[in-house]
Amino acid sequence: MLHKFLATVMVGVAVAASPGVSRADRPTLHATIAPFNVVGPGQIAIDVTVAGLEPGLHPTTEGTITVGDMVIDGPRVPMAAPYLPGVLDLRAGTFRLGGVTILHFNALPPLSQNLPMVVDVTVRQGGAATTVRRTGTLLLPTLIVPGYLNDLDSKPDADLVAILEQRGYRAGGRSPTMFWFTYSSRRLSLEGGAHALAAYVRRTVLPSIYAARINVVGYSEGGLIARWALAFDPDLASLVNQFVMIGVPNEGAAASYVYGWYPALAGIAATPGARAMFPTYPFWRPNRDTSWTAPADGQNAALARLNTQPLPDGLRMYAFYGSGTRTTWAGLTGTLPEAVYSYGPGDGVVLVASVLGLPIHGGGGVPALADRLIKVDLRDVRHLSLFRVALPKVADLLADEGVNAAGRR
Q1: Pairwise CA distance, residues 373 & 309, whole Å
Q2: Quick check: helix, strand or coil at residue 31?
Q3: How many beta carbons lie within 10 A of that of residue 18, not counting itself?
Q4: What is the pLDDT of residues 246-305, one digit of tens each?
Q5: Tell me, what DSSP letter sits at residue 246?
Q6: Beta carbons within 8 Å of 396's beta carbon, 6+ residues apart
Q7: Model pLDDT, residue 158
Q8: CB 196 within 8 A of CB 161
Q9: b (16+ CB within 10 A) / e for 325-338
C-alpha cells in the first residue's frame, strides 16, 4: 500500500576506464533522490545527490516526472554540483533546478484526489551512467475534527499527529496536508461548531493548499459538527472528497444525558456541547410497562433537525465503531439516580445503532446515513480508545483509496 512515501531505488552502472585510471580505482557513480517534500502550495521539492563524480568528465543529468497521467520529460542538462535541488511547481507549470527554470509544462489543476508520483533521474559521466527512481503519493489534505473536550489541551495530540505523519501527511510547513481543528467543545452548539469549522476551512485550510477537495475525519462530537457543516453549507460540502466518522453518536448517547444529571459533573456534562449529544431516539420510560419515550429535559432538537437533512450526493462516508461491549447504556427506566439501565452493543458510550443510524427503541433512525455508510467494525475497543485505534486504519484508507482509483482508470 502506498500509505507513505516509498523509496524504490534502481541503480545500474556501466563504467568505462579512462587513461591513467584503472577500472578498480574509479569511484562508483551513484545517485539518490530525497523523499518528496511539499514546500509550498503545489510545489514539490525533488532533490538529487550524486556520488562518484570525477572532475573533468562533464557530467549531465536528465529525467522524467510522472504525476498521475501526466508525464514530464526533462532535458539533458550539465551538472554544476553533486547536489541538485529541484522544485516541481504544478500551479506554475515549471520545473526549477538549482533555482533556474529548465522546463515548462501544462499546469496541473488543483488536486481532486490522491495522485501517484514517480521521478526517474539518469546521471551520465564519461561512459558511466546511473539511474535512480523514487515513487510517492501527492495526498489530498485531510482535516481532523476531534471530539468533546478536545480543547482541554492547547495543542493537537502529538501521538495522533505522528500517526498521520508516518503515513506521509505533513502537519507543518508552508503547505501542510493535515489540519487539526480545535474548537470550544463545551461552549459551542452543533451549529456554532459547524460555523467555526467552516470559517477555519476558508481562513486556514484553503489558502495553504493546492487542492480542489479535502478529506474530513470526525471523532465523536467532532463528527456531528462536521455533519452539520456538510448538511447546511453547500460550498463546504462540495469540497469534501471522503468523510470518515469515528465513534460518532449520530443519534446521540444516553450517557450524555445521565452524566449531566449529577452536579459533580456539571462542568463537563451539563454544557451546550454535552447536550448536543442527548439521544434523539426514545431512551426513557417511567416503568417497564410503558413505551420508550424521551424525558422532558432530554430533548435534542438540534440533532433531530440534523438527522432530517440529506448529505451531498456522491459523498463517500465511512463509519468506524466499537461493538465489543454490551454494557453500553441504551436507555433507563425510572427516575435517576435509582433508574434501571438497559444495554446494547457499542463502545461503552455510543451504541452501534447510533453510529450507524439504525432504529433504536422504535425510533426512526437516520435514513440519510444508514443506507450509505461504509462500515468498519473495530470490535472490542472502548470509546476513549477508538480515535487512537482507528486513526492508522483511516490514514491508510485515505492514502490508498485515491491512488488505487487512479490506477483503475
Answers
A1: 15
A2: strand
A3: 15
A4: 999 999 999 999 998 887 777 777 888 999 999 999 999 999 999 999 999 999 999 999
A5: E
A6: 1, 3, 167
A7: 92
A8: no
A9: beebbbbbbeeeee
All 3 cell numbers of residue 82? 553533486
In the DSSP assignment, the letter for residue 154 is: S
Count Cβ atoms below 10 Å from residue 216 Cβ, excluding itself.
29
In sequence order, what DSSP letters do the residues of 53-110 get, joined into one string?
--TTS--EEEEEEEETTEEEEPPPEE-SSSEEEEEEETTTTEEEETTEEEEE-PPPPP
Closest residue by Cα to residue 281 from 319, 312, 249, 311: 249
Which residue is it, cell 541503480?
A: 11
In the numeric block, the cell 487512537 is attached to 388
Q: What pTM value is reported for the model? A: 0.88
* pLDDT tens readout for residues 65-100: 999 999 999 999 999 899 999 999 999 999 999 999
Domains and CATH numbers, the chain: 30-138 (2.60.40.10), 142-407 (3.40.50.1820)
Cβ-based neighbours of 402, under 8 Å, separated by 6 or more:
113, 114, 115, 140, 241
Distance CA 184, CA 271 (A): 11
Under a CB-based contact definition with an 8 Å cutoff, are residues 221 and 184 in contact?
A: no
HEC readout, 175-213: CCCEEECCCCCCCCCHHHHHHHHHHHHHHHHHHHCCECC
> Would you mind telling me the total number of residues written for the chain in this entry?
409
Strand ranges in 247-315 using DSSP code E only, listed in sequence order: 284-285
- Which amino acid would we find at residue 405? A
